[in-house]
Amino acid sequence: MPEIEIPDFFSPNPRSQQRLDNVFNWLKQFWGYLIFITVILLFLGGSIVKVDAGERAVVFNIFGGVEKRVLGEGIHIIAPILQSATIYDVKHATYNFTSEEQGKQGKVIGPEIHSLTSDGQKVDIELSVRARPDLQNLWKLHKFIGPYYAYKVLFPKARAVLREVLAAYPVEDVYSIKRQEIQNKIQQELQDDLRKKYFIDVEEVLIRNVKFSKEFQDAIDRKQQAFQEYLKMEYVVASEKAKRDAKILQAEGEAKAIGLRVNALRANPDFVRYRRAQIYGKRAKLIFAND
After folding, report:
1. pTM of this structure
2. 3-state DSSP helix/strand/coil percent for the chain, to nearest 5?
3. What pLDDT shows up at residue 144?
4. Phi and psi angles of residue 64, each rounded to the nearest 5 degrees, phi first
5. If DSSP codes are grouped into helix, strand and coil, which group holds residue 209?
6. Contact 210, 172 (CB under 8 A)
7. In a 10 Å sphere around its CB, with 0-12 CB exposed, 13-18 middle and 19+ buried, how is residue 124 labelled?
8. Distance of alpha carbon 194 from its chain centroid, rounded?
9. What is the separation, in whole angstroms, between the first and last Cα of the chain?
């Protein structure tokens, strides 16, 4: 039986050992250059700021604080360590004050806004606000408020303005034609306040839904039902009146026709004999003879 040669995995291979020694020798010789190149790459990587479409960047300087400039879309160079950039999404975003199940399309979700009307009725308002940072004053927004401006400013301001506006209207106006007026007033006050003081542009405010207390909702339903009954009775009355008017017109027409016939008979007595002849036929001679 031939002998099987088992390879030796534990004894060092002279050729492999030589390659490994060459690599270590090369690293010892050029390690300083490698460290220098690595530092340069990290330095250059920290100096490049890429701003995508729909974004802006604000620069912070460790010596002077937030710089009074805004970086637009594209590639920008800043000084590493000395400067750092914060990217802002400046596209219009929708902020919903509603339940989580109904507000998933919005960027930020807040709860429904509880408020009181001028007559003390409780209402829950589902509100949507479309807004974005003021592009020209983005550095001010970053300096005085920061990236979480929606939670710090937009949410509390929207709640406060809605409650203030709603307190001037009775509950009937909230679900009537004045709902649009209330919505426009909230939008106008938010636009003026947020842009001047907090550097936020409000594009649109929308009242999505209004929820009343159960007692008031029941009263609305009863009122609506009573109104529908009133419309139904009004229709019945109008229908009966139309029928009565039609009968009156018909009677008046018939009376007028009879009057015309009487007048015609008076003017032409022979017409009576002619009509008798038409009705009685051969017996007309007897009738005429008797006349």
Report:
1. 0.61
2. 55, 25, 20
3. 94
4. -115, 0
5. strand
6. no
7. middle
8. 19
9. 163
Tokens of 9: 């995995």
- Where do runs of H (alpha helix) occur along 175-213? 179-198
Give the per-residue pLDDT at 9: 47
* Local confidence band at 162 (pLDDT 50, 70, 90 cut-offs): very high
Structure-token pair, residue 215: 């007692």
Spans of all domains in the chain = 18-89, 93-212, 225-291
- The band of 60, judged by pLDDT with boundaries at 50, 70 and 90, is very high
What DSSP string runs through 96-122? EES-GGG-TTSSEEEPPEEEE-TT--E
109-118, 178-187, 195-204, 234-243: segment of lowest average pLDDT: 234-243
93-212 CATH, one of 1.10.10.10, 3.30.479.30, 3.40.640.10, 1.10.1510.10? 3.30.479.30
192, two tokens:
């003026």
Helix (H) or strand (E) holding 289: helix 284-290
